[in-house]
Amino acid sequence: MSANKWSLRDVIFIALIGVFFGFIFWAWAFGYNVIAAFLTPFGLSAYANDATLGPWLMAGPMAGFILRRAGASIIGETLGGVIEMVFGSQWGVMNIVSALIQGLGTEIGFAVYGYRRWDKTSLSMSVITVTIVTFIWDLFRNGYASYSIGLLIGLFITRLISSAIFAGVIVYFTQKLIAKSGILDSNKNEVVS
Q1: Residue 193 included in any domain
Q2: Where are the alpha helices (DSSP H) in the chain?
Q3: How far does Cα 86 stand from its chain's mean position?
Q4: How far is Cα 50 from Cα 148, in angstroms, rounded to an integer?
Q5: 108 and 7 Cβ atoms separated by less than 8 Å
Q6: Structural domain that includes position 146
Q7: How far is CA 152 from CA 30, 38, 90, 102, 158, in A?
Q8: CA distance 33 to 46
Q9: What domain count does the chain have?
């Protein structure tokens, strides 16, 4: 079997990732709303999006880092966005558009290493690229282009921290736990250090 072919296990696993994270994404919207409502009276509502973005970025790196296949990040993140929309998300079809962009941002990070390196370095690169790509998207989608440079720097740093915690650290340790469980093919998904 070619290393580029997807096995039935890969397809099932990415579907499970999409459904699981789709539910997480949908539920996290309530957390976002609470945080945005709390920050608004202080004039900090712009930070709600960036502080809470991390959980919405997890499906892509989880799929890519576990399955180690080109395209897994885009597919995993997009499936999560579709499922979030199906559950009745407040953003509707824009979930899919945002998920595609988030998946692409993650995918770029793994592609930098030619899909050959699956460790903290490639995962860190995916965190950086997804942060940059989604921030550029928000310059247009959410009107960030009209913000002052100081606010933009603050928002970017906040987004990077949120992304690093959720799409980096949590994904890394979750992958280690899944690999240790024996669910995955040990020669492809060994525990990384």
Answers
A1: no
A2: 8-39, 46-56, 59-67, 72-87, 94-111, 120-141, 149-163, 171-181
A3: 19
A4: 16
A5: no
A6: 8-181
A7: 25, 20, 25, 19, 10
A8: 12
A9: 1
Residues of the chain with pLDDT > 70, as a percent, come to 93
pLDDT tens-place string over residues 147-178: 999 999 999 999 999 999 999 999 999 999 98
Predicted confidence (pLDDT) per residue in 77-121, tens digit: 999 999 999 999 889 999 999 999 999 999 999 999 999 999 999
Q: How far is CA 26 from CA 20, 23, 55, 83, 112, in A?
A: 10, 5, 11, 8, 30
Does 114 fall in a domain?
yes
Distance CA(20)–CA(92), nearest Å, equals: 18
Please report which confidence band the pLDDT of residue 186 belongs to, taking 50, 70 and 90 as the band edges. very low
The structure's pTM equals: 0.89
Q: Does residue 3 have a pLDDT over 60?
A: no
Domain presence at residue 60: yes
Look at residue 109 and tell me if it is in a domain: yes
**Domain CATH number, residue 163:** 1.10.1760
